[in-house]
Write the C-alpha cells for this entry.
Amino acid sequence: EVQLQASGGGSVHLGGSLTLSCEIWGLDPYAMSWFRQAPGKEREGVACVSRSSTRSETYADSVKGRFTVSRDNAQNTMFLQMNSLKVEDTGAYYCAVGCRVVAGEIRAIELHYWGKGTLVTVSS
C-alpha cells in the first residue's frame, strides 16, 4: 500500500520560514510534487523534483527564489524549504507522487497518490 504523509506546517509571520516534509511508504517514485490550495482557490502546483542524476527541479513562478524542493532518497522523503514567506503562501500543502509539467506549469494530471495536507498560515 502506498502512503504519503506531509508534515511541518504551522503559523509564521510575514518573511518567516518553514520546512515541509513528505514521507512515502510502499513506493520509490522517480518524481514527486508539492501542491497547495488556499481557501476559495484552486489547487496550485508549487514544486517538483526528480530522482535523476541531475535532480531536476521545477518551481511555480510565484515561489522561485524563495522555495527549495529536495529529496532524501535513502529516507524516501521529500522536503520543501520555504523562505521569505508571504501572506499569499497561506494554504494547505499536499505532496504527490509524480510530476507533470504542462506549458511550464506543474499540473495535477494523472497523479494517483497524494498525502493529506499540512496547513501553512502566514500572517502579516
